[in-house]
Amino acid sequence: MQWTGQGGSIRYESPWRVTVTEALAAVLRSEGRDVAVACADLALRFDMVTPADVATLFADAPRRTGRWHRLVDGRSDSHGETFVRLWLGDAGIRFEPQPRLAGVGRLDGRVSRYTYLEIDGSQHDAPTEGPVDAASSQFERDRHRDTVAAIDGKRVLRFTYRQLYTSWHMCLAAVRRAVADDARRELAERDAARYRKRRRKRVDGRNGGTATTDP
Fold this sequence. Notes:
- By secondary structure, the protein is an alpha+beta fold.
- The protein folds into 2 domains: about 1-75, no CATH class; about 75-125 and about 135-215, 3-Layer(aba) Sandwich (Endonuclease, Chain A).
- It has helices spanning about 20-30, 35-45, 50-60, 80-90, 140-150, 160-165, 170-210, and strands at about 95, 100, 105, 110, 115-120, 155-160.
- A 4-stranded mixed sheet has the order 1-4-5-6, sandwiched between helices. Strands 2-3 form a two-stranded antiparallel ribbon.
- Strand 4 (about 110) and strand 5 form a beta hairpin.
- Helix 1 (about 20-30) packs antiparallel against helix 2 and helix 1 runs parallel beside helix 3 (about 50-60).
């Protein structure tokens, strides 16, 4: 890839080594939406560039990138998280990056009130040989966090990078089902809360000597 002599407001300091902003400028010229937004996300997340730097880069980038700037979020810890956020957004599902859940800590994303997502690289795989140290195994820590979330009435959907790249349609179907289930659960909880409120009013009415009727 040639990153020098490309014109625009970015001027390269070296013909063989480039800065982060120079690399991002090259990405915006040569890559598609997902890779470009993911690179900008990570550069922001780890303080390698500022929001003003990103704005300048997009202003100088090809016209086809114009709508991508608003997609840059800067909270993702990995390109997989950005890809999932973008792909779910394409499907009309909002992905909140890096939410915190009491007793669990930070998770990769949330798609509804009760459903969280984790995008797992190979460091999250189960050990294949040797003894398992529960205190140091990422696999064990992940399952402990999932259990704590379940006790609190939440669910954590875990997808590997292989699933994202080879079976995205299944990942999306699982998320859609979880979001739909959560919507029904919230509706049932609201209905139950209204029923309890009406029942308390009837009891209070009887105790106070006045009649009440359901709306």
